[in-house]
Each structure stands twice: as structure tokens, then as C-alpha cells.
Amino acid sequence: MLLDLSKAQLKEYALKKGFAQFRGEQIFDAIMNAKPLDKTNLPAEIRNQIAEEYPHFEIVKKLTSKDGTIKYAFRMKDGQVIESVLMNHSYGKTLCVSSQVGCAMGCKFCASSLNGLIRNLSAGEILQQVVMANKDQGGSVKKRAITNIVLMGMGEPLDNYQNVTSFLKLVCDQDGLNFSERNITLSTCGLVPKIYQLADEKHSVTLTVSLHEAEDKKRQEIMPIAKVYSIKEIVDACKYYFQKTGRRVSFEYSLIAGKNDDFAHAERLAAILKGFNCHVNVIALNDVQERHLRGSTLQKTYSFVEKLNSLGVNATKRRSMGEDIEGACGQLRQSVIKEEQ
Ligand code: SAH
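Above: inputs. Below: predicted complex with S-adenosyl-L-homocysteine.
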């Protein structure tokens, strides 16, 4: 797919096809600005030749929340639908993108894995979410409307390592959207070897790990991946990432009523993170209809955060955005088409 190619690669592609090299640049600009093929300045002959490989841009649904959060659903070439969520902050616009259709991780509280993994997204398909939302927000390739990206949508990004890192390269391309990895957050349920790989390959994204429990046995009950990697192995990998990159690591902790939200849990978590310069984002679990787990109360959430702070852990309550449009954490699901059927 042409969306997977950098500007330099598109120039090569143009030459290979027998076009002039600058046609590659035109194709790149058209793609980055989400232009339908018939709106480009390419001659008909070239348009016909690249039509099959040219990205197919389509927003199938756009929902705006009371708090201004927008959920986009995009249909891809093969008909699969993926969702992204745009959040407006005082410092800019953050886009939460999906890295897979569905998810294989099977976390008990999350809607993304309800139907397992359908397929990985290509680098270009992850990029397409940014390109489309950027355009919809009035941005262009030269003047970006999106300031931050979080890989916290559907899917486990480190389970699609190759495509996700190719995406990082594409989205940070100076000729393209010119993001800095520092403005990109990658969230993982803790695929330890991939965290080391990310550090060794000198990435500088903000790494955040979904912990949600401070005890391996309990974590295994809600996150199957905990049977493969222990919390200690995860924290050691995060320390390595910090050492190598100088980037402070965060941990996600979603509070589930009666499961992981007592002071004893906060104490255990503080003991694990002791001496590690990191940050904990606390959020009450968002309801997912099919999941029979409840989020903790607001009061419980605040006291959990306070408890962590009093124990010397840097923690804040994360604002939940877009709940009324099912755009909040863990609510993105495989396909709006299925819902409509
Ligand atoms: N697979 C990655 C990223 C996707 S989910 C990961 O596990 O980190 C982004 C965050 O939302 C994760 O921290 C995930 O554990 C959390 N999450 C999933 N379902 C949730 C729910 N129902 N309520 C609150 N957070 C949830």
C-alpha cells in the first residue's frame, strides 16, 4: 500500500513505474493531506495506474462527546473498521490511535479483546488515522492540527512491533507530519522483550505500562499476559528503558471496585515502585457492558491517589474523556459495522 511508504520510497516507486520522480512527491503530498485520488493534480493516466494501491480514505462515523472529545471510525480497504479518539487539551490535541483490529491479550476488563485479534494494522493504516483526523481538524501536512499521539486505542502495540515502529518512523518523517517521538506515548500491557528492544533501538516514545495490580497472582486473574511476565520483570524492563532513553516511564492503574482499590494495594504498588522515578496514572475502570466489573467510586479514586502520593509515589488521577460516546479507555471495539447490524 502506498500509505506505508516514505517520501523517498515513493520517489523510487514513481521511477519504477516509469513516472517522473516528482510524481512520487505529489503522491506523498496527496496522501499526507488525505486527498481522494480524483482531487489530486496527478494526470489521469497515473491515477489509473496507482488507483489499486492508493489509500482509501473514509470516515464512517464521527461522534462528538459533551466534553468535546471526538470518536472517529475509519473504514479500511478490506472493510474492517477501526476507531481513534481525539481529545482536546489546553496544550493541544491528542489523538488516540489503534494498532490492531481487535486484540489477542484478553484483558478481562477491556472491550478490545472481546472477539480476539482480527489482524494487525499496517504502518500506513496506523498513520492513516493521524492523517485523517489531522485533516478533519483543519490541519495539513505543513500545519499540523494534532500535537500528540497516544498508542492507546484498540490493540497491543508491542504485539505488532514491526508495523508500529515503522509507523513511528513514518509519522516522525520530516517531510511528512514531522512528529517527535517525545510527543508520542506507547501503552503496553507489558511485553517485556519488546520493551528491551524498543530501548535498544533507541526509540524515545513515552512508555506507559498497564499494571492494574501489584501482585502477580491477582494480575493473572485480570490480565492473561501476567502469566508470561512477572511484575518484577516488567519494572526491570522499564528501568532499563529509562536508563537507555532518559524518558520517564508511566504506569496505568485502573481501579476496579472491590478488586484492586484498597490502601493495601496502594502500599504494595508503592513498594514495587520505590526508588524508581516514574508516574502512576490512576483512573476508575470504565464500564464495558459485556464485562462484569465495576469502576471504583470517585472518592475511592482520589484516596487511592492520595495514598500513593503520601507513600512517595508520583500519581495523578487521569481524566476520563468521551465516556458518553464510548470513546473512553477500554471502550473501543472491533467494528461499528457489527454494532449496526
Ligand atoms: N494494549 C495496550 C493499549 C490499549 S488500552 C495496553 O494494554 O496498555 C489503553 C489503556 O486502557 C490500558 O491501560 C488498558 O489497560 C486500559 N483499559 C482497558 N479497558 C479499560 C476499561 N474498561 N476502563 C479503564 N481502562 C481500561
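The domain at 56-340 is CATH 3.20.20.70 (TIM Barrel).
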